[in-house]
Design goal:
alpha/beta, TIM Barrel, 2 domains, two-stranded antiparallel ribbon, 8-stranded parallel beta sheet, globular
Length: 502
């Protein structure tokens, strides 16, 4: 028998800020908890009961506090091993966590954030999202810009967010030849015009820069079927509109999608399709390209084009461009069946599918300086599902590309507020064993500061000190303060399916 996780948790008295079992989105039969997961869940509850009583708090409020989060990490270490940096004092002293992990310690630039207006997506129904134990509505409001502001800026420490595109083709003119504006331009669930509009609204509200935005336009979005080639006049017109009118800050490309119905995707190193786009973009003064690589199962027909094999030539041929490789090219998400296939991860080498290919590119080209590894979704899912792989992800990115070429991203709102991922990275460290065996380096506070935001600030030309000075007095900070003073907090409820007998 299937049962909603929130109902199962209510019956069992479970309330955890970190996942303790797989939750189904109705696409597969719910899997039972493993013995370790049951032990972890039970331990979180037992520790929370003990500590909340001593503090005179309800367990619910306790588990929504920094002390409750610390307890979940402590319990994970007790069951799985010492993967997370947490001290016992943090579980009973709110000031201990604040002292060790002070809010605002890092200037955090999230280079991959999403929202939609008027569209309800299925991302929050994925089993990983349900695993997180958060209350994540899966309707249009959950992905709205209003909720984006709440979850990204009020419920997390994110300082500045890059609104990241979702592939879509805008329609410039009506059949009568009239230039279209706003929703008449369409463009899919997160078009360039919408990202630009919301960026300007939020920055105007804040009185300083809190968001950047990307452009969706890509080489195969406007297609001449007669020539079976890009419609370059239409393509260049849209490029100019996005740069000059929308004021986009970078491009977002999905090589494995086909909004223009060209019949195929495209490669970064295609000299006939991509290279003319690069040259026109340089003329327009825009030199940053964020590219989805990995997570290939999004497209069963064109998924192979999400492989990072086309990064090498494109980057070498265009050293004046910056290529941000989203997801660090990890081939499969942790919820995909292929993630557990033999050979996907090799514990002897620490290599895993497609990420290893991205690493080899740098190994072959140590002089390459214009490729960056972004860790959105890859870090968060591995932190929960496979801590050892998570250490290899960060360890190899830094070892091969350098700590100054690793970028923070979360892929939220798709997964709710990014604060849990921020907390995890603050506490993250690579084990002595893996450092000794694979030549990884321990992460310092300075390393984390670079990954959290300083690297992205350099790419996007953000004056971090100027922004830090502006934040305390900007309207967004004041609204956040009021929100927190009125008791605003995250919720640990989940709406997915588990087995009633587990």
């Amino acid at each position: 028998m299937w049962i909603h996780k929130w109902e199962r948790d209510r019956r069992k008295g479970v309330d955890s800020p970190i996942p303790t079992q797989v939750v189904s989105n109705e696409e597969f039969i719910p899997r039972p908890q493993t013995g370790q997961q049951r032990q972890w869940e039970r331990l979180i509850g037992e520790l929370a009961d003990q500590k909340s009583r001593k503090l005179g708090m309800s367990r619910r409020d306790y588990l929504r506090s920094s002390m409750g989060m610390a307890t979940a990490f402590l319990a994970a270490n007790m069951v799985y091993g010492p993967y997370w940096d947490v001290e016992a004092a943090e579980t009973t002293e709110a000031d201990a966590a604040q002292e060790k992990w002070p809010k605002g310690e890092y200037f955090i630039i999230d280079v991959q954030t999403h929202f939609t207006d008027g569209f309800a997506l299925g991302f929050r129904s994925a089993d990983f999202v349900r695993d997180m134990g958060f209350q994540l509505k899966d309707d249009a409001d959950a992905y709205s810009f209003t909720n984006y502001v709440k979850e990204i800026f009020f419920d997390s420490e994110t300082s500045l967010g890059v609104i990241s595109g979702v592939p879509g083709r805008e329609i410039d003119k009506s059949r009568a030849g009239k230039i279209l504006e706003g929703r008449d331009r369409r463009g899919g669930i997160l078009p360039s015009w919408l990202m630009s509009r919301r960026k300007n609204e939020l920055n105007a509200l804040a009185g300083c820069q809190r968001t950047l935005c990307q452009g969706n336009c890509a080489p195969n979005h406007y297609w001449d079927r007669t020539k079976n080639a890009p419609d370059f006049p239409a393509l260049y017109d849209q490029m100019e509109r996005e740069v000059k009118t929308y004021g986009i800050d970078s491009w977002k490309w999905y090589c494995h999608t086909d909004p223009g119905r060209s019949g195929n995707g495209f490669r970064l190193d295609d000299e006939k399709m991509a290279y003319p786009f690069y040259e026109r973009s340089k003329q327009l003064g825009l030199k940053v390209f964020s590219v989805h690589k990995g997570y290939a199962s999004q497209s069963r027909t064109l998924g192979h084009m999400a492989h990072p094999g086309d990064v090498e030539k494109a980057a070498l041929d265009h050293p004046d461009l910056t290529f941000i490789i989203y997801h660090s090219a990890m081939k499969h998400g942790t919820t995909e069946p292929e993630f557990k296939e033999p050979g996907y991860f090799d514990p002897e080498t620490g290599d895993f599918a497609w990420h290893a290919d991205l690493m080899k590119i740098k190994q072959r080209n140590p002089e390459m300086k214009n490729v960056y590894c972004e860790i959105g979704s890859a870090f968060g899912t591995l932190a929960i599902a496979h801590p050892v792989m998570c250490q290899h992800l960060i360890g190899k990115n830094i070892k091969n590309y350098g700590v100054d070429h690793v970028l923070w991203g979360t892929d939220c709102l798709w997964w709710g507020s990014p604060q849990w991922v921020i907390d995890a990275f603050k506490r993250f460290q690579i084990s002595d064993e893996l450092c000794d065996k694979f030549g990884y380096e321990k992460l310092t506070q300075e390393d984390k500061a670079k990954i959290f935001g300083l690297n992205a600030a350099r790419i996007y030309g953000i004056d971090v000190e100027a922004e830090r000075r502006a934040f305390p007095n900007d309207a967004l900070s004041k609204l956040k303060t009021a929100y927190l003073q009125q008791g605003g907090q995250r919720d640990n409820t989940a709406y997915g399916w588990v087995r009633a007998d587990v």
